[in-house]
Fold:
Amino acid sequence: MNIRTTLLLCLLVMLSMPVCSVSAHQQKSGLTTVLFNPHTNNIEVMHRVYMHDAEHAVKTLFDKTADIIKSAETQAQFAEYVAQRFALYDELDQAFALDLVGFEVEGQHFWIYQETATPPNIGKISVRHDVLRDIWPEQNNLINFEGKGQVQSLEFADNVELLSVEFAPHAH
Structure:
């Protein structure tokens, strides 16, 4: 290789580095845990969103000056946005009445908490999880169901709108 080719390759590598580091910040993935808590007899829902994703999202969803880090109002708006785009349905396709019970910033994550009473004899739950998928179609949301038998997971990607999970009778 001559020196000109080597310099050109080095320049191309250097120019591509900032692009890689910028794209590494937004994760475009969320994690939700649905916990069947035997101590409270509640279904507890915990949504985890990367702060960097939340920062970009609130500027798109609400206002270009929205600040989820410093503004309690923006945090509450975003928590409500998440609550409106997540739903659990029973076998009769009736939505569970999920209460928004709180939210917090913890390190590089924004957490949103919901809960509802655990109905008796759950056999199947259907889930809608559209959080951030309205602004980023490539958003990927993973849900883990815990506390009712083995952990079961559902993944919302691409055009998936509704998924279901089934539980064995009397699973604890």
In short: The longest helix spans residues 3-23. Strands lie at 29-37, 42-50, 86-89, 99-106, 109-117, 124-129, 140-146, 152-156, 163-166. The radius of gyration is 20 Å.
